[in-house]
Every structure is written in C-alpha cells, then in structure tokens.
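Progress note, sequence design subtask.
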C-alpha cells in the first residue's frame, strides 16, 4: 500500500484557467530557476531522435528484420528514445484518442472538477505532480487513468464526456498494449535474452498500464517555465502519442536539450527506469522535459507500460557477471514510484541514487 498523503498541500489552481486570465505574466509559483528554464538554442537544432519503420518486424525477410532490430538497439543505446512508424495502430484511432481528450479539456470547468484527483492514487483530473509545499509547479493540467491490471480499471474514474471517451480509450488501450508487447520482445532479443524475458520479468500477462493525458495551455511567458520538468520515466516503457502540430518534447543528449520533431501518426517510444534496472543499465532511461509556447495549446497521450506493482524488479541474473555486478537492489514498482509521487519530477535523481556500485 502506498503511503501517499490524502490531499494536496495547497489549493489546486487549474493552469488552463490561468492561461485564460494571464495576459503578459505568469504567477511566481510557475517561474523556474534560471538554470532550469528552456534554452532558445535547443529549439533550432536540425537533430532529431531516430525514426524506425517497424514493418520489417512483421515481414518474412530475416535480413530486414535483423536490420530493424539493430536500428532499435542503436536507438536505445544512443538515445533511449525513438519514433516508430508502420506500427500497426490505426491512424484514425490515434487521431480519435487525442482529439477526444482535447475535447474533454475544453469542457466547462465544473464538469472536469467532478473528476479532480488526489495524491493518494493520482487518478483523475490533476494539475500538479508531487506534494512538496511551495514547490515550483509545471505549466500543465493532466488526466491520469489506470488501464491494467483490470482490478484497478474503474470506469467511474473515466470521464463520461465526451460520450465517446470511454469506448475510444478502451480500444486505444487494447491496441497500444499489443504494440508494447511486441516492442518488449525486441528489447529482450537485443539484450541477448529470449524474447519473453522482459515481459516475464514484468509479471507476464499480469502487468500494469496507465495513461496520462497531458494538456499544455498557451503560456504568455514560455521562456520562464516548463510544461513538465526534467525527469526520467519511473516505469517500464512509455509510448507517447504527441501533438504532431505542436512540438514540445525535449530529450537530453550529451548535455543538450533536443526538441523532438514529431511525425504524423508516429509513436515516440522511450525506455523507463524499470527496464534500466532489469538490463543492469545496458539500456538507460533518459531525461526529458516539455516546453510550452504562447501561440498554441498542446495535447499528448503518454501510455506507461509497467511491471506488476508488487514483484521485485532487479538486474537480470543473465546480465550480471564478475565484470558487470548488479547495479541496483531489488525493489517493487510500488516502492519505486512513491518517490515521484511525493517529490515530483527530479531529473534522474531517483534511479541514480539507487546505484549500489560505482564505475
């Protein structure tokens, strides 16, 4: 059982409401320290995360399949992030999922407030991560939902409006879970393990999955704040459906912040802390953050594919040798995610604090 507090330390302010009332300034509680503010130079680089066509994985050509596996391995090693196309999820479903949630955020505030969340589970309509009083907040609202295991799936926590919301997300969740399962096989093979290894380490079919829909309203002072502070994802693997009309995701590489250029109908995949632990840091989760802008709102759907919450996650014995001792102690995902639920996003400070061996 998580020991999260029952309520927020301060009254919740919806960022969407601030966006509608703030003309040329933002409240101090959203102004980041200068070292954490977005850098204008990072927005103009031509670099982008790798783009990988998954169709050879489903074809009969073994050379093409091997080449795609190698592309994914290189992307995991070099970036921890990559975009996938020809992934098997309907483009129409992707569009419907994003635009249905956009419609939710444009409903009257009293309808949305009926789903207001608490730090006990985070499920529902929210506007802050972490419960530290006086923390500098992010310029975003969100909606957080459990999809798996089925015992946590509570339709009463899902919005009843727009009327299509529950059906669309049910279908979207089914398709994305299948896609995550296929990617887990690739990640296992690229570690030199059998294709079911990571899935089994996560709990087999009894895994966790949840969705956070991010809503980043227009901001009159985007140079002073962030939509989401720097963090690595605490879970296993994330599939992000971005807003391909409005770039905002930034990935940290070699000390620089690279603004991702999203392709239409591509998913952005990234490694989470749990896979870093199981792989004994062969795969690494990567810091990322979100910038906002003054002209356009942005909606994205982050689907988190996680281990079963109560099984110990630790480095795979097959990847531990005298030369590569285990870097992390065993810890359940329930224990692990309590950190971010209490403290909010803090770069890679959690997973790095767990390292048991220095290199």
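Output:
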């Amino acid at each position: 059982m998580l020991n999260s507090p029952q309520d927020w330390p301060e009254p919740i302010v919806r960022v969407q409401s601030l966006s509608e009332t703030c003309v040329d300034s933002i409240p101090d509680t959203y102004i980041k320290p200068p070292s954490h503010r977005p850098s204008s130079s990072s927005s103009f680089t031509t670099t982008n995360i790798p783009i990988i066509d998954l169709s050879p994985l489903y074809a009969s050509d073994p050379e093409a399949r091997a080449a795609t596996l190698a592309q994914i391995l290189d992307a995991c090693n070099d970036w921890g992030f990559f975009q996938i196309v020809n992934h098997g999820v309907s483009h129409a479903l992707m569009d419907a999922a994003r635009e249905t949630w956009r419609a939710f955020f444009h409903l009257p505030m009293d309808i949305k407030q009926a789903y207001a969340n608490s730090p006990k589970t985070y499920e529902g309509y929210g506007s802050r991560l972490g419960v530290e009083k006086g923390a500098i907040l992010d310029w975003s609202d969100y909606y957080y939902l459990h999809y798996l295991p089925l015992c946590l799936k509570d339709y009463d926590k899902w919005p009843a409006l727009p009327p299509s919301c529950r059906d669309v997300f049910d279908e979207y969740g089914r398709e994305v879970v299948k896609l995550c399962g296929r990617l887990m096989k690739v990640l296992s093979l690229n570690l030199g393990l059998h294709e079911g290894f990571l899935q089994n380490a996560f709990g087999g079919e009894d895994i966790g999955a949840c969705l956070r829909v991010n809503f980043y309203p227009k901001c009159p002072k985007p140079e002073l704040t962030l939509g989401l502070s720097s963090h690595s994802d605490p879970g296993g693997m994330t599939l992000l459906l971005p807003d391909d009309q409005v770039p905002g995701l930034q990935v940290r590489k070699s000390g620089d912040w690279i603004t991702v250029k999203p392709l239409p109908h591509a998913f952005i995949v990234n490694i989470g802390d749990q896979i870093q632990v199981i792989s004994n840091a062969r795969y690494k989760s990567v810091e990322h953050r979100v910038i906002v802008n003054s002209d356009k709102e942005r909606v994205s759907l982050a689907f988190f594919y996680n281990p079963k919450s109560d099984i110990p996650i630790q480095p795979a014995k097959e990847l531990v040798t005298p030369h590569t001792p285990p870097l992390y102690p065993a810890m359940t995902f329930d224990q692990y995610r309590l950190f971010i639920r209490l403290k909010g996003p803090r770069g890679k400070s959690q997973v790095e604090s767990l390292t048991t061996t220095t290199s």
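Residues 15-353 form a domain with the Jelly Rolls fold (CATH 2.60.120.330). Work on this subtask will continue into the next period as scheduled.
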